[in-house]
Amino acid sequence: MAADPLEKLRQTLLDMHHSGRLSEIEPGLYEGARAYVEKLKADYYSLQNPLESRSGSLLIEEIGSVTETVQEIFSIRTRQILDLAFQQIEGQYFDREEARKMLPAERAMYGQIIDAIEGCREALVRGEVCSFGGSGAAAVEAIEEPDVPPTAGAGRAAPAAPRPASSPYALVHIRSDVESFMGVDGKVYVLKQGDIVTLPENNADVLCEHDIALNIRLNK
Hints:
5 strands, mainly alpha
């Protein structure tokens, strides 16, 4: 990524707002952002007292800004891909040049969306058994092959890989304000007195030991 990754992400987001259409982005944008966040995390953990230093606060702000900007880029592109899927499924004008700007993962999502819409329409409108095995994959292939119309019965896109199991979390009540911090799960937490939140157990235990939080032990 560029010398200032956050600025580059913000410029990409600004260009997307101005365009209003699905635009090309660097194939490594998401990977670069993740790598940059990991570097910021490493810098954060290398500080002597990250919760008490100005440098720690600045790193937390940078991590939060990068994460929020990437999430907004993802949200905008996902809405645009949904619009393209509706255009495709309803037989409206469909801009294949715009569709070709999808990243591979976005293209797989696009195919799955079309399958889901077709399956739901079969069940609700036509009263048929909902198999969710429509022409999503064929629609994706048609993006690459503009002269070949999508055909029904093509195979579905591969399902997404299962997410790894998350770390144990605890439900806590925040008893006093606390500086923003990064949990062991890599997320940035900004908490205030009176909040009831779920935190990684390790972080929750530390806050409880300092009488900053109260563990709400449900079903225990």
